[in-house]
Design a protein that fits this description.
The protein is mainly α. 41% of the residues lie in helices and 9% in strands. The protein has six helices and five strands, in the order βββαααββααα. Strands 2-1-3 form a three-stranded mixed β-sheet, with no helix packed on it. A two-stranded antiparallel sheet has the order 4-5. The radius of gyration is 15 Å and the shape is globular. It starts with a strand and ends in a 5-residue tail after the last helix.
């Protein structure tokens, strides 16, 4: 149970997490990440800021950011593939390359929290997955990919 992160061929960093419904979540990240940002740091930030369904959001970040290595993560500080919102408050500075651009990765998560508070507040796990499937994701298999990550299977 936990995350295994290996950066620059050093010993893997391990951070533990407990999931609702006793899901196991193991992610192996063996590539260099943006400015040495680790999955563990992101997880701690999610927990410290009481992000609802933080374990699902962490899986989203891993998937959306290509394990923190995507171009969108590097150029826009956008870990979640967030579009620039037109009808709600945002922490995004502007739109860049069709996606929201943030001052840093933490502002991306704060923006996601605004989205959650507006559209996905106090949902059960199943309701949250349904919301992601119907209103958030463009990929029909998005929720299945998240569940595979959460259950410790590679996607």
């Amino acid at each position: 149970l936990g995350f295994i992160v290996s950066i620059n061929k050093r010993q893997p960093e391990v951070c533990e997490t407990k999931f609702e419904h006793n899901h196991h979540f193991t992610v192996k990240l063996e590539t260099e990440t943006q400015d040495s940002l680790t999955i563990c740091e992101v997880e701690e930030f999610l927990k410290a800021n009481n992000v609802e369904h933080h374990e699902i959001v962490l899986a989203q970040i891993i998937l959306e950011s290509g394990r923190l290595t995507s171009n969108l993560t590097k150029t826009n500080n956008n870990l979640l593939g967030m579009k620039y919102p037109r009808q709600r408050p945002t922490t995004a500075l502007k739109e860049k390359n069709g996606f929201a651009y943030y001052e840093d990765w933490k502002h991306c998560i704060f923006d996601y929290m605004i989205w959650q508070s507006r559209y996905a507040k106090k949902l059960t796990v199943n309701e949250y997955f349904d919301k992601l499937s119907s209103d958030y994701a463009q990929d029909e298999s998005y929720v299945n990919k998240l569940k595979k990550l959460i259950n410790g299977r590679e996607i």
